[in-house]
Amino acid sequence: MELLEDRIRRDGKILPGNILKVSSFINHQIDVSLLDELGKEFARRYNGTKVTKILTIEASGIAIACAAAHYFNNCPVVFAKKSQTSNVDDECYRTSVYSYTHSKNYNVVVAKQFISSSDHVLLIDDFLANGSALSGLIDLVKQSGATLAGCGIVIEKGFQDGGEILRKEGNRIESLAIIDSMSVEQGITFRKQ
Amino acid sequence: MELLEDRIRRDGKILPGNILKVSSFINHQIDVSLLDELGKEFARRYNGTKVTKILTIEASGIAIACAAAHYFNNCPVVFAKKSQTSNVDDECYRTSVYSYTHSKNYNVVVAKQFISSSDHVLLIDDFLANGSALSGLIDLVKQSGATLAGCGIVIEKGFQDGGEILRKEGNRIESLAIIDSMSVEQGITFRKQ
């Protein structure tokens, strides 16, 4: 998506260790007009696909998921919560997500009442790299018995293997920008889509 | 705001200990159409007030802040982050917020680059009870030298003293629903506004 790629080139910051900071427009400060366009593009790509609910994970997925929901008939958004406790709880679906940023596992939960087996769930998140967060969300959908309608990612790091592995498992993943390579010296190369 | 009060009456759950759960439409599952109406109402109340930026706190404030931003000329939204470290960092404003839910203090940070002294900041959050989170956000705005345009709260627990204390300190707070009393037996009484 050209608008997004241009914005990443202009305002993204590449840091050593394959880190791309987009905190000035996506995940600390938020450009709501841009998110609106991203939501519209997810809807264009999933045109004709039944979606009854959008599931994301706190915190940076929330704004994107809500922007998208407007273009999916204002369907409800549910955000999975990072839980401090590992208590097993009959009322929640629960999975574990490894954060490379913080080098630790998070318990992630969704109240069972908010995803039912009749739902068609679109997963939305800001980044896809190693795929840990997205795998966790897919696991939550499987536990619920709902249909996975697909996944919508804003920025995929195509040089890490999360996207490839999850697509091979049969999941549809639409990433609005896919980075094939990036470095402080040479900038960013996006995959042609 | 009648629409909101009706929804709280219908879908809110009162639990012992003055807990009101609105997780089916505000802070776990999100009704984006409702949030849109809340955003519109904040804009109506702050009509004529200069707002260049909306500041909220992760996670449940984000969706509300983004919904509101559409009615404040699509101004940028910034969300304060709960920080795991207490490292002093030249690049961030930092404050401490006590969470009664989790009985602990959180460090809350905002990158300095996202609030400048020329900004007019509207604070948005889902709940106001003892006022700890909102005081923290006010503190962040003060550190930045920006002008505090006001505060917009979805649900204020009027029987706790956060709202009263912060208004006495001269802050404008607009709460879309103010609960004067609530109990499992007698339900909710809203303050007439």
Write the layout of secondary structure elements.
Two copies of one chain form a homodimer.
Chain A lengths: L1 H10 L1 E3 L3 E3 L7 E2 L1 H14 L7 E5 L3 H9 L7 E7 L8 E8 L4 E8 L8 E9 L3 H13 L2 E11 L4 H7 L4 E11 L3 E4 L3
Helix pairs in contact in A: 2-3
Short description:
The structure is a homodimer of 193-residue chains. The first copy, chain A, has helices at residues 2-11, 32-45, 61-69, 132-144, 162-168, and strands at 13-15, 19-21, 29-30, 53-57, 77-83, 92-99, 104-111, 120-128, 147-157, 173-183, 187-190. Chain A has 193 residues and is α/β, with parallel strands linked by helices.
Give helix % range of chain A. 25-40%
How big is the Rg of chain A?
16 Å
What is the mean predicted local confidence, pLDDT of chain A?
95
Oligomer class: homodimer
Strand content of chain A is 35-45%
- Spatial order of the strands in the main sheet of chain A? 6-7-5-4-8-9-10-11
> Which word captures the global form of chain A?
globular
Main interface by residue count: A-B, 29 and 29 residues
| Number of discrete helical segments of chain A | 5
Low-confidence spans of chain A: none
Distance between the termini of chain A: 8 Å
Q: Structural class per helix/strand content of chain A?
A: alpha/beta
H/E topology pattern of chain A: HEEEHEHEEEEHEHEE
The major sheet of chain A is characterized as: 8 strands, mixed
How many β-strands of chain A, per DSSP?
11
Question: How would you portray this structure in words?
Answer:
2 copies of one chain form a homodimer. Chain A has 193 residues and is of the alpha/beta class. Chain A contains 5 helices and 11 strands. An 8-stranded mixed beta sheet of chain A has the order 6-7-5-4-8-9-10-11, with helices on both faces. In chain A, helix 2 packs across helix 3. The mean pLDDT of chain A is 95. At the A-B interface, strand 3, helix 2, helix 3 and strand 5 of A face strand 3, helix 2, helix 3 and strand 5 of B.
